[in-house]
């Protein structure tokens, strides 16, 4: 048969590699800053753009979408062409994908420090950027499916399936979780409220980890590990079962982020069961990766690429065992809201994603520049700095998590909390946070060394922009009787649809009942929508990223009800667009903070937290005292919330500012009695109004709980 | 609105059961298939990353 000549596009891969390295360094540097802020508040720089609440989402977004995202594209664009023996479907679409993605990153880097955020973790970007993400993702999908349809290889290798599942699922997750009602160009409210918003968000959050940080990287593992080891994967059969069971089971496990919260119990149990089941496919994949090196372990000693891969796959195994264990209710009761979770995600992020990326880059760059790595010594140094970095990061955070949890839950023999003041538990873990920052610094140093090494390598070689290849065109020749699954692999569109069905089913079964059956969210008659001033305050709370350190979810444990007050009921959140339950307690829970302190306490506390609670690591918020709320937005906010179901009376938007003024005047008066002069339109007034409202609805007298049976 | 539509579906409980059966059967067939599939095919598939059709690629293992 006549062989067709064509070439692989390396230029697009090069662009994505550069973006990976640049944003990797930026993302890690921002992360290091955040780590320092949690020890020394001075690193918040007293600027609103650089406080922890805004820096933390910048770090997570930069690492997930800029560093890991660009690496994913680089890895996919390189391997897909070669696995399918064809150039990408369209060079133009490739470049739209590249520049569009970088534009989105730029938009994120500008809007997040400005406080433009939806507050939903890993989905913080506001609605115009959400739309842009959707468009660029579709461009990527068209380019990918187009390439698959033009392939010269009859069957799709397992890596391609993982890429397809990634495309399909991330599209579904992103669109469903981003349903929001715009208030203006820079502000929107989640379409969902309270418990439902939480369920959708963690269905998204969990599966963003699954389908943005895991499946594409498993695809990359199945390509680059055999490639670097120069031997086929241990068991191709296992990889097939790995794929289908992983994508099917993963999607169900989201509710394990909400154990002991107000989420209906059956949904929590479902999340736990499927999380435990996840161990099987995850470890199947890990073993498949590690066993690929059987009989070649001697090479791991010399080949730095393999070293990185071995640690990456091991970290994947550790994180995917730990995750299901954390989903057990008894372990979750201890670990949730503590630094343990931070350690867990960083074993995944630094170990699995980071090291797989580093290994891939050390393999790709010499290959694409047709040379050898500039310095094996430096690469080895990077490996050891990175490994030490992971250990110095994870271990202190594990200890910190356990310390936090034990201190939160310790009672005296008389039955009182030993550490009544939450601050005591925070001060205790600061040395561990210092060690964590050291770990991060080591890891970043390694990445800087890699950057130098890769640049030197590239300069020593000659870039192959288009790599020549030849292959026979696709014919109907088959490998004998290979059965129904092999047929499936020849039909990418059918395959994609099946993958879509597999991932939809879990989400639908969890979400539809929560949305439909009213008894899942018993309503409480005394819970009323927020007043206009509280609404402004809540938006300031969202803008400042308070949710990054403070939860609004008192779990039904004695240690929590003793410390914070009545445990949280799902009916309390029905007007919360978005929900603000949070996922980490660097500071205390705020669900019952309303009425706990006087207005002047909040006034002084936000101005200079250290003067009210000595030794706190909370940053100061002096700009709230100078900036004024935008009263023109009140009507728009109320209209938007009414559209998503909050029962503000028709026409209330006209009179809302009147109510706002009255409530503000009351707070100003309270403060005046304490000798504080403040403008009624100052942002701090709105924030105080919101904080004083928090969790007070169920304290109203004659509260009647009317669960709709 | 959409709540009422979905609630009015008769025997909505049958759908999860049907989905469970479909998926159970799918995985059963999948496992059966992996055990019975042609060895040559598996070999061809697992060698794909190593043979990428470029001039300097290693064609070893393609049809050993």
Provide key terms for this protein.
heterodimer; A: 709 residues; Cytochrome C Oxidase, Chain A; Cytochrome Bc1 Complex, Chain D, domain 2; 2 domains; two-stranded antiparallel sheet; 23 helices; B: 64 residues; mainly alpha; 3 helices; heme binding (chain A); transmembrane (chain A)
Major sheet of chain B? none
Unreliable residue stretches of chain B: 57-64
Q: Encode the helix/strand succession of chain B as letters.
A: HHH
Number of DSSP helical runs of chain A: 23
Quaternary state of this entry equals heterodimer
Whole-number radius of gyration of chain B? 23 Å
- Sheet-strand content of chain A, in percent, reads under 5%
Q: What overall form of chain A do the CA principal axes indicate? A: globular
What class would the helix/strand composition of chain A place it in?
mainly alpha
Give the helix tally of chain B. Answer: 3
The SSE string of chain A, one letter per element, is: EHHHHHEEHHHHHHHHHEHHEHHHHHHHE
Number of strand segments of chain B? 0
Number of strand segments of chain A = 6
What class would the helix/strand composition of chain B place it in? mainly alpha
What fold name goes in the CATH topology slot of the largest domain in chain A? Cytochrome C Oxidase, Chain A
Give the domain tally of chain A: 2
How helix-rich are the residues of chain A, as a percent range?
55-70%
Distance between the termini of chain A: 71 Å
Shape of chain B: elongated
List the helices and strands and how they pair.
The complex is a heterodimer of chains A (709) and B (64).
Chain A: E1 4-9, H1 11-37, H2 52-84, H3 91-111, H4 127-149, H5 158-177, E2 180-184, E3 187-190, H6 194-229, H7 236-250, H8 265-291, H9 297-302, H10 304-326, H11 329-335, H12 339-368, H13 376-409, H14 422-460, E4 466-471, H15 483-489, H16 492-516, E5 523-524, H17 532-543, H18 558-564, H19 599-607, H20 609-612, H21 633-643, H22 652-673, H23 683-693, E6 705-706
Antiparallel strand pairs in A: 1-4, 2-3, 5-6
Chain B: H1 2-7, H2 14-36, H3 39-46
């Amino acid at each position: 048969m006549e062989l067709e000549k064509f070439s692989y596009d390396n230029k697009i891969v090069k662009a994505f590699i550069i973006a990976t390295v640049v944003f990797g360094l930026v993302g890690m540097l921002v992360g290091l800053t955040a780590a320092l802020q949690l020890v020394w508040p001075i690193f918040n720089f007293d600027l609103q753009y650089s406080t922890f609440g805004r820096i933390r989402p910048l770090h997570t977004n930069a690492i997930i979408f800029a560093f890991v995202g660009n690496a994913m594209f680089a890895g996919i664009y390189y391997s897909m062409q070669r696995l399918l023996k064809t150039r990408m479907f369209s060079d133009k679409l490739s470049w739209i994908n590249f520049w569009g993605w970088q534009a989105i990153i730029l938009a994120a880097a500008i809007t997040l420090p400005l406080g433009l955020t939806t507050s939903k973790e890993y989905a913080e970007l506001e609605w115009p950027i959400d739309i842009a993400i959707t468009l660029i993702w579709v461009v990527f999908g068209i380019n990918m499916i187009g390439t698959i349809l033009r392939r010269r290889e009859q069957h799709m290798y397992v890596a391609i399936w993982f890429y397809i599942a990634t495309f399909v699922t991330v599209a579904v997750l992103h669109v469903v979780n981003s349903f929001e009602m715009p208030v203006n160009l820079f502000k929107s409210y989640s379409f969902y409220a309270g418990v439902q918003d939480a369920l959708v968000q963690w269905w998204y959050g969990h599966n963003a980890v699954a389908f943005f940080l895991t499946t594409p990287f498993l695809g990359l593992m199945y390509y680059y590990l055999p490639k670097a080891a120069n031997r086929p994967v241990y068991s191709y059969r296992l990889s097939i079962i790995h794929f289908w069971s992983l994508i099917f089971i993963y999607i169900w496990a989201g509710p394990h982020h909400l154990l002991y919260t107000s989420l209906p119990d059956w949904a929590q149990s479902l999340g736990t069961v499927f999380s435990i089941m996840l161990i099987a496919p995850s470890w199947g994949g890990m073993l498949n990766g590690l066993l690929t090196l059987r009989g070649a372990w001697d090479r791991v000693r010399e080949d730095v690429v393999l070293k990185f891969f071995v640690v990456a796959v091991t970290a994947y195994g550790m994180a995917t065992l730990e995750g299901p264990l954390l989903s057990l209710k008894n372990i979750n009761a201890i670990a949730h809201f503590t630094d343990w979770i931070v350690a867990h995600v960083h074993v995944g992020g630094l170990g699995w994603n980071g090291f797989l990326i580093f290994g891939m880059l050390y393999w790709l760059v010499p290959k694409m520049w047709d040379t050898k790595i500039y310095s094996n010594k430096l690469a080895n140094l990077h490996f050891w700095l990175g490994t030490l970095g992971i250990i110095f990061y994870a271990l202190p955070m594990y200890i910190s998590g356990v310390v936090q949890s034990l201190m939160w839950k310790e009672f005296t023999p008389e039955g009182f909390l030993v550490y009544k003041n939450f601050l005591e538990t925070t001060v205790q873990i600061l040395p561990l946070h210092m060690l964590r920052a050291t770990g991060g610094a080591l890891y970043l140093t390694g990445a800087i060394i890699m950057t130098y090494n890769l640049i030197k390598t590239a300069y020593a070689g000659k870039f192959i922009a288009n790599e020549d290849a030849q292959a026979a065109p696709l014919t109907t020749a088959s490998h004998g009787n290979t059965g129904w699954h092999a047929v499936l692999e020849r039909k990418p569109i059918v395959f994609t649809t099946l993958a879509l069905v597999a991932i939809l089913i879990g989400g639908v079964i969890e979400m539809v009942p929560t949305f439909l059956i009213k008894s899942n969210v018993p309503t409480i008659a005394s819970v009323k929508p927020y007043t206009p001033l509280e609404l402004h305050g809540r938006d300031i709370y969202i803008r400042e990223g308070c949710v990054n350190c403070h939860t609004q979810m008192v779990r039904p444990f004695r240690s929590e009800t003793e410390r914070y007050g009545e445990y949280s009921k799902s009916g309390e959140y029905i007007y919360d667009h978005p929900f603000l339950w949070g996922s980490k307690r660097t500071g205390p829970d705020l669900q019952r903070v309303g009425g706990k302190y006087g207005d002047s306490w909040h006034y002084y506390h936000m101005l200079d937290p250290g003067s009210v609670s000595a030794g706190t690591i909370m940053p100061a918020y002096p700009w709230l005292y100078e900036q004024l709320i935008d009263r023109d937005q009140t009507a728009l906010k109320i209209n938007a919330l009414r559209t998503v179901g909050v029962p503000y009376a028709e026409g209330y938007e006209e009179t809302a500012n009147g109510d706002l003024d009255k409530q503000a005047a009351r707070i100003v008066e309270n403060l005046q009695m304490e000798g504080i002069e403040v403008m009624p339109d100052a942002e701090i007034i709105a924030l105080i109004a919101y904080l004083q409202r928090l969790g007070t609805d169920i304290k109203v007298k004659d509260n009647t709980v009317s669960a709709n049976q | 609105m959409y709540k009422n539509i979905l609630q009015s579906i008769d025997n909505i409980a049958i759908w999860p059961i049907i989905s469970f059966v479909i998926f159970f059967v799918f995985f059963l067939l999948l496992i059966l298939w992996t055990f019975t599939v042609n060895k040559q095919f598996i070999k061809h598939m697992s060698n794909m990353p190593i043979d990428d059709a470029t001039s300097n690629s290693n064609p070893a293992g393609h049809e050993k």
